[in-house]
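Annex B. Sample input.
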Amino acid sequence: MPFPPKFPISARKVPRRSRPVNDEAVTGRRRPEGCPDFAVVTGQMTVSQPAKSMPGGPLLLDGPIRVRRGTEGKDPTKSSGFGNRMRSSTRLVWSCLAGLVLLLMGAAAFAQSTPVQQRPFGQLVDLWTRQLDRIATRTEQAVLLPAEIDALREQATDVRAAAAAAAALARNDLADTKKLLAPLETKPGVDAPPEAAAVQAERQRLTEQATVSEGRVKQGEVVIARADQLLDHLTKLRGEVVLQNLLRRTASPLSPQVWSNIGPELTASARALSTAMATWNRGGLAALRSGGQDLTPLAAWAALTIALWWAGRSLRRRFGRKHAHEPTHRDRTIATAIDGIGLVLVPILAVWLIGGLLAASAPPAPLDVLVPEFTLRLIVLLLVFGMTAAGLAPAHPAWRILPFTDSSAHYLSHALRRLMVAGITTDLIYVAFSHANGREAVAAVGSLVLATLVALFALPTLANKAWHAARPEGSELPPMIGGTWWSIARLVLSAVVLSSIGFALAGYAALAAHLHSSIAATCLLIAIGLLLHRLIADLLDAAAAPDTPTGRWVRHRLGLPADSTVRGQLMLLLLFDLILVTLLALTIPATWGVDTDAILQGFSQLLRGVKVGGVTISLTNIGMAILAFAVCMLLARLLRSIVRDRVLPTVDAPLPLRQSIDAGLNYAGMLVAILVGVGALGVDFTNLAIVLGALSVGIGLGLQNIANNVISGVILLMERPIKAGDWVVVNGHEGFVRRINIRATEIETFQRTHVIVPNSMFLQSPVINRTYADTSSRVEIQIAVPLSTDVMKLEAILRETALGHPRVLRVPMPIVRFVRVATAGLDFELFVFVSNLEDRLTVTNDLNRALLARLIEEKIIDPRPVPELRLRDIDKLGAAMRGELPERPKTEGSSEMTSEGADDAAAAPKN
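Annex B, continued. Sample output.
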């Protein structure tokens, strides 16, 4: 997308000051008489003006370090849109990244600074009240620009911060006073001797001090509440002003008067530009030689640019794109990251450096605005060119990391570059000729030309031809990049881009420019985010590979095998994605004109916390609680591993007892981690007991099953009716207990499958524990022999065979039982005992084989198969013998025998 000029629908943000505007209201120091009440600070330059007298119109900011006063009738279509948006987004990102550093530096400076003498609290409250009254009066005026609203809101924020700090100090004083007053609250009884006068005086003094502190807390809270009301009102007011500027209609390009005025306006703009260029040419270098500009940051920037250029060149020589071999996915990722440094970062830094030098030469108006705008647009152009070369790689298809086809990569790359060149060139010409006052005709026609060119060059980038995906054969992925959702989004974007032409024709130039710049910035930010996510994910995978130096180093430091899988990169990628999504959530609304201060204020409110009852819930406390819980759980796991692997093996204790101790440590570690996490959350344990009492009803209704299983697990660990390694039968499941967890018990069956049984099942239903007392077990073998077998001889054979097995216990001795005499033979049972329950199957199998061989050897049983005689249709045979079989019905031709049948009958033998 191109970057058309932006109209002051959201005039440039006022940068944060290093100290509040109203020094007297915050620090208690009185300002000199005549000190202005309304101040705007930009860079190193401060322009102050009382809010009641603003001759020449409202205050307009049209440069990074310049403040000028405009006129009441100035056309709002004279400033650049994308420049404002990109600068606002850039400042927002850098503010987020540098906030922690500034906070730490400010804390250190505050700790080392000399305390400033504070004014009485009552005077401070009066000063805060007057300041808020002035802000409220200013908001009631008819004409307010977004920049003025930002300044007023900053003053209200400063007052709120000062009142909050004072209220916090008073609250701490009140808490300390109540602690001192607590021992004196209990007065002596009727029969007790009267207390000393000093004690009464001390109680009276502390009571009065507590009353004063409590009053200060309430006064501070009142000021904070009023400041919050003003901030909400200013936020809504700013949104209304932005919307009014968006929907304000200017001159239409269809008006004949516009075309009659465009010639003189173009001539005047060209004359102003030539005059400014001549003036700058004569005095530009003189401004640099005068020494009035501090060029130290530019020198550091130049050194950084040269260092990155040298590093990128060296890395490109070693890991860059080579045509000698087929690149792997890792090679493509590393080459793309290196190209991102050489093709994107270094040129951008170089252009930024040149732009800083040009801005330091103090160019005259309107070049003072055109130079930063030109620098910003050139940076965006280089960014798009570098991203297309690194990500799409139209000239090197083998090194492409994005899943585009060759034709789509070529088409999209060329379309984006044509769009950027045409849009940025037209945009710069438009800004140059429409910047001055009285250029309504140039602005109207220029917005139409710009909207038309943008639509013509943007539609090819949204066509289906540019978004075909390279998919392998048989892949179920969609054939288009982004699938159905991105196809629908491209249709919507095409309609919005075409609608901007209609808005420009109707005279809504601000709305048309707002659509162009916002869509362009949003698409650029999303593309950067997706490309960074892809690069970081691939780089982390490459760094964790076992055959890379970084992968080997990580495995060596963690003590892992050389071929093990490292999974920490997934957590790092998740953390990076979280940061990336947070930055996009802050910057994308800023590109659409959403108040960034309101976004940051809401985010800071979440960090500070929301007070619910007597508990303050904040993201900071939640993060600290999660961190404390995670650290405690890690320490608990470390303690468990040490006790389980190093301490318990040295103790003469059975395995089930050791596993119970390990489970108990798990319970205790989790309980301690929960308590520490709740404490870090800032919840009072007294209130927590009340909350838990209220939640017990919910636990009894909704979490009854889980609570029942957890408590049952504790009972199982204490009473130990089952232990790890026991052979149990419960609810139709039979197997060995492997682990007793918090909620359920794991049973391994004989088929090597695992059954997860809730702990309450072992307490509410009958359980067969075959190894409850000991691990010995009885093996039962049944044998049937013929009736002619010698009983005494068979019993001796059974005993000898049982005692001949090494795993059969001698005490108790094997038992032979003569069960019964059946019609088919004699039934015997052999009972033997084994020391280990797991030997049952093995001993049973061995004894069956040994008994079979011995009985065959003694000829007690015959191994030959028994002949079997089967009679078919025995029922029909009996019926035929009794003459009850019905005659067959005669069919046609059955009464006569064929010649062939007669011959067969004659040839048959006769009895």
